[in-house]
Structure formats: C-alpha cells, structure tokens
Amino acid sequence: MTDKVHLGHRARKRFGQNFLNDAGIIDKIVTAIDPKPGENLVEIGPGLGAITEPVADLSEQLTVVELDKDLAERLIHHPFLGPKLTVHQGDAMKFDFASLITDERKLKIFGNLPYNVSTPLLFHLFEFCDHVEHMHFMLQKEVVKRMVASPNSKAYGRLSVMTQYYCHAMPVIEVPPECFKPAPKVDSAVIRLMPKAPEQRTAKSVKLLNTVCLEAFNQRRKTIRNSLSNLLTAEEIEGLGLDLKLRAENLSLDTFIKIANWIYDNKQ
Q1: Which of 2, 211, 234, 255 could form an SS bridge with 251, CB 3.0 to 4.6 Å?
Q2: Which pLDDT value is given to residue 106?
Q3: How much is the pTM?
C-alpha cells in the first residue's frame, strides 16, 4: 500500500483518510455548525484539525473521537488545540455518545466521515438521536443524495427511509475532490441532520422497521408482493390498503412504518 504524505502525516487508506484543506469550504462548514462557548460539541475523525481548529477557536472546548492513534497523539500534544480538546482515541462505531452528555446539554456532532464506513456509522449515531441537537457530516455526495431522496426516485432506499425516520435531513454544501489531500475519486457533500422529537418517531420496533426496509429494497425491482413475501402474504399486503404491484421505492416513510407496526401487532 502506498501512503500519501500530507503535512507530516500519511493518509491511511484503511482509515479512509482524505484531509480537507479548502479555506472557503471549511468556513462554510463551520458557519453551518455555528459553534458557541459552552456547547457540547463532538467531532468524529478530526484528522489534521482543519475543522477542529476554527470550531475550538469559537467554542473553547471540544470533544473529538479519532481512530488513528498517531493523529490522536498529535491533537493531544497540539500547542493550540491540546488544552481545548478531550480526545477519545477509538472507533466511533463502538463509541457510546450518550456518555458525553453533561448538564443535560445535547450534543452537536460533526465530522468528515470515512466513506468506507459511513452508512453503518450513521446507523450507530441514529441510536443516540434523543441526545443530539444536530449533526453535520461530510459524506460522499451520492450518500447524501440517498439520505434526502423522496419516494419514486432511484436514490430512494433503506438509507433514505431510516435517515428520515430519525431526522430532518438537508444538504448544506457540495465539495469537489480538489478540496482534499489526497483528492478522493468521488464528489462530497455536507448534510445537516436535525433529530425528530421522540413523539414523531412512531415505529413500535425500529429493528422491525429496518427489517422491512431491508427485505423491500433487497429486491427493489420486484413488486412488494414478492419482495415482502418473507414477512407478509399477498392478502395481508392488500389488507393494509396497498397495491401488490407497487415496488419498495413507491412506498413512503409512513407506509413503511404502517407495515412494520402491523407486523409487530399481528405477527410478533
């Protein structure tokens, strides 16, 4: 494996590292995050501190979760950032973000998420939505498109349904490859996620909702009569008021919740 050198640190492919270095884009991201002193700010994958520095400058205190031991050490011993940071060296996918709640202050989470683990990491973060005020993430542009997609579009899928179940999702800014070192082979974008209130999340079992989405979109070209056959008979689907000829991409979030709740009530 050939590593690219950037500012004395090698960008490690296994960590999906691409370091943001465009001042204009950085400024727009920090403006979107809108950090203030006293807030419970958390950055995932701070890397070389491109976003960390301006956020710490505005907030005075910041928690970061960094997988790369070398980068974590750099941040701990950084002359400007070190005193302002609480550094957790480890895997964000295994991190208990609820442990960072203090004085009932909700989390403001942000980061440049590694593209190779972005979807499972997002699903992990959704579990902590009740503790989060908002989240801002740099992701592959195609992932952002899928997160905000509406029914009846090719981009609409399980990630769309589950993201929109937990959060209001809004694209913030598109980021071309040349804004990074090394430049990735894909376009990027920043998304804002505003968690919905608990009473807006009406699935009786989120696990079951996810299962329905997995079954439906696993064979997305098939009609729901076939793609949901492991969960529902044709008669049961029609009993829910649904046309057997519909495909998964035709079903709204509310419809997926309706299906999952019916299965929970009648087949558990």
Answers
A1: 255
A2: 95
A3: 0.90
